[in-house]
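Severity: low
Component: inverse-folding endpoint
Summary: output formatting inconsistent between runs
Steps to reproduce: submit the following structure tokens with default settings.
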């Protein structure tokens, strides 16, 4: 499968890139500077640009079968980055007839907010409103754009990241009416593996699963 990867130089994106190569996908990595990508492979094409630019996205989307976004916010400043990327990406995907989108999000965004508040008092009532509010507002708007896009989409919402090894043992919740005792951590390697798996699975199409280990 020909896959456009956004955020290939991030902490999760680097692992996603490795997993995509390992599973024989042809990858186009959109990155601000090619020097940020240290991987060399015959099935890897590096395109310089930013996903916030509609023109850069359009060029990178040509000929692709799917998109994996591993973009993440670095600070909790007010921003429209994810909203802008989602809007430009959906428009570009429609133009180039790219159907599948796997989007990295976060537990507690949008429709999962009340679920996380019920399931983890510390994360939902303290961490989210004090340290994640602005980036979560932007993420929720981006999710709404993707939800209405008509694409085959999966929005993955992991708990907080660790740098631990992949466990292969993932818990997935899609019913936000439940109350579940959430573990607050998940290895980035587990998140990356989940994202890549969604390229060939239909289990969570049109859903926003919370994932944790």
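Observed output (run 2 of 3):
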């Amino acid at each position: 499968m020909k896959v456009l990867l956004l955020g290939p130089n991030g902490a999760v994106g680097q692992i996603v890139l490795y997993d995509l190569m390992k599973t024989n996908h042809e990858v186009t990595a959109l990155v601000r500077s090619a020097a940020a990508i240290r991987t060399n492979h015959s099935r890897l094409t590096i395109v310089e640009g930013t996903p916030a630019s509609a023109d850069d996205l359009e060029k990178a989307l040509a000929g692709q079968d799917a998109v994996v976004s591993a973009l993440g916010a670095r600070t909790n400043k007010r921003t429209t980055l994810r909203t802008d990327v989602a809007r430009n990406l959906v428009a570009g995907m429609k133009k180039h007839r790219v159907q599948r989108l796997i989007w990295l999000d976060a537990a507690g965004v949008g429709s999962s907010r009340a679920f996380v508040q019920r399931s983890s008092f510390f994360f939902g009532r303290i961490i989210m409103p004090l340290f994640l509010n602005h980036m979560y507002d932007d993420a929720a708007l981006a999710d709404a754009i993707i939800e209405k896009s008509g694409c085959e989409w999966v929005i993955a919402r992991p708990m907080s990241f660790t740098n631990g090894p992949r466990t292969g043992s993932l818990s997935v919740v899609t019913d936000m009416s439940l109350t579940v005792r959430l573990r607050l951590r998940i290895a980035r390697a587990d998140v990356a593996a989940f994202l890549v798996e969604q390229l060939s699975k239909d289990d969570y199409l049109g859903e926003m699963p919370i994932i944790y280990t």
